[in-house]
Amino acid sequence: MADSIADQSPATPPATPPANPSNGVSKVLAVIKKSQLNGTEVRNTVFISCNLKHICPTVLSECDLVNTVLHETKFAKLSMENCRVTTSPLSIRRFCPELRKLVFERCVHTRDNTSPVLLVALRGNPEFYYEALECFYRQNRFRLKLANLSDYERMSKKASGAIRHLKIDFSQVDQPLPATLPSLFHECFKVEPLLMAVPAQGELFLWAKYAVETFPNLQAIRLSISMTHVQGTSRRTVRLRAGSDVLSQNLRIEGRIHRVTTSNWEICFWEAARGQTLK
């Protein structure tokens, strides 16, 4: 069966039905556009801008193909125009994209800022490489700090837009404010929870405001608030309460303590109601 990955037109005859060369009689062919098919039995069909993968054991026959890619597909009696036929020794090609996604998700976790071995191995196959790369950005947590700011500046919009989990760490008092950062993440529509490490001063509100304005689908902010520069327990309490009250007032959501800690950090979070975003 056809598993559409884009707009799929209904099976309607073309304006000028192609002729059947075997008997000279005009035959109406079904039309499939911009679709992906896996392991499907297909005959008497026109494919336009499609991706056909492992169409077997039945032979693809008596069809017209335009701007279409065939992977590991047996065919006979086809009319082709601007098409590409490829074969690959990779057995994983026999799996549908949904199953490949499950495989890639378990193999793309990164440690020590090194590229996963799977991504390195798939660089010679652009199709699988980008499928695995999407899983890589979705599965891993990325940390932005002053030391790697230039790396994020060189990141493409497509790559940054695929990030799901992000931590922004500018916890030192003398580090940049949000207004000084370039527009790194304005394409990050997929970031929903955000973790930030910030100082407990007026910057607390500035960072949260930056997050809400930058990530349109943001549903929750968790702040690790550094108290190391504030001397005295009472002063820390006053400073933290003042910053969190301002933030709660502007977000119109009451902040809550994420967990109690004995360190010089206070961890609070603000979360929108289910199905809503922070504004």
What does this structure look like?
This protein is an alpha/beta fold. The chain folds into three domains: 60 residues, no CATH class; 49 residues, no CATH class; 131 residues, no CATH class. The protein is built from seven helices and 15 strands. The strands form three sheets. A six-stranded mixed beta sheet has the order 10-11-12-13-15-14, covered by helices on one side. A five-stranded mixed beta sheet has the order 1-3-5-7-9, with no helix packed on it. The two termini are 43 Å apart.
Describe how the helices and strands are arranged.
Blueprint: E1 2-3, E2 30-33, E3 36-38, E4 45-48, E5 51-53, E6 60-66, E7 69-71, E8 75-81, E9 84-86, H1 97-105, H2 117-121, H3 126-139, E10 141-144, H4 149-153, H5 157-161, E11 165-169, E12 193-199, H6 203-214, E13 220-226, H7 233-251, E14 256-259, E15 265-271
Helix pairs in contact: 1-3, 6-7
